[in-house]
Amino acid sequence: MHALLALHIIFIVTWFAGLFYIVRLFIYMTETQNLQEPDRSILQKQYKIMMRRLWFGITWPSAIATFIFGPWLLFGYFPFYLRESFFLLKLCFVFGLALYHIQCHVIFKQLKADVFKHSSMWLRFWNEVASIFLVAIVFIIELKQNNSGMWTALGLIVFATALYLGVQLYKKSRMKDMEEEKNKNVSGADKEGKA
How far apart are CA 121 and CA 30, in angstroms? Predict the structure, then answer.
């Protein structure tokens, strides 16, 4: 049982690592749209290779292994958990995480076909959804004995709000940097025109 639990945890960790990194690659791939050729083509080709290797070499295998070892543990050693409300809540979040994974696969296929449906800012928010699932699942499992569903829900709200504010601050900082760069380029062009 301990070996199965260890394997389940290892594959959960690698699954989340894959989910976190794949969306970062989606962001980088989307931001190549702002580049000039040949930089755009070179980076897009490299990001497609990286996305394919990560998605099919780590993320999908880890998700599949998680869904093998999880039920094996549940039905082999912990069937009584199916009567516990904390575990049913955890399963709801795991189901949501599976849907998140499937939506990431949809985005992966779109980007592979050079279809850019989402902005990099939208993808930054999307990237944080996996963090919310991670925090929710870990807190539900760890606080199961305390019957502290209210505290878990409150913690999730605070965590999600902090993530949202962090992304907004990053957006403002990035916009400011882009504006400064634009002004610098304009002033440099003016100096060259006067010379």
Answer: 10
CA distance 7 to 67: 11
Measured between alpha carbons, how far is 176 from 170 in angstroms, rounded to an integer? 10
pLDDT at 190: 59
Higher confidence at residue 168 or residue 63? 63
DSSP state of 117: -
Structure tokens at 88: 């049913």
Distance, CA of 78 to CA of 173 (rounded, Å): 48
- 59 with 19: CB under 8 angstroms? yes
Complete DSSP assignment for 120-150: HHHHHHHHHHHHHHHHHHHHHHHTGGGT-HH
- Hey, what are 193's tokens? 């025109």
Domain boundaries, given as residue ranges, for the chain: 2-194
Mean pLDDT of the chain: 86
| Residues 6 or more apart whose Cβ sits within 8 Å of residue 21 | 54
Taking only the tens place, the pLDDT of each residue in 92-117 is: 889 999 999 999 999 999 999 999 99
**Are 12 and 66 spatial neighbours (Cβ–Cβ below 8 Å)?**
yes
CA distance 102 to 97: 9
Burial class (CB in 10 A: 0-12, 13-18, 19+), 111: buried
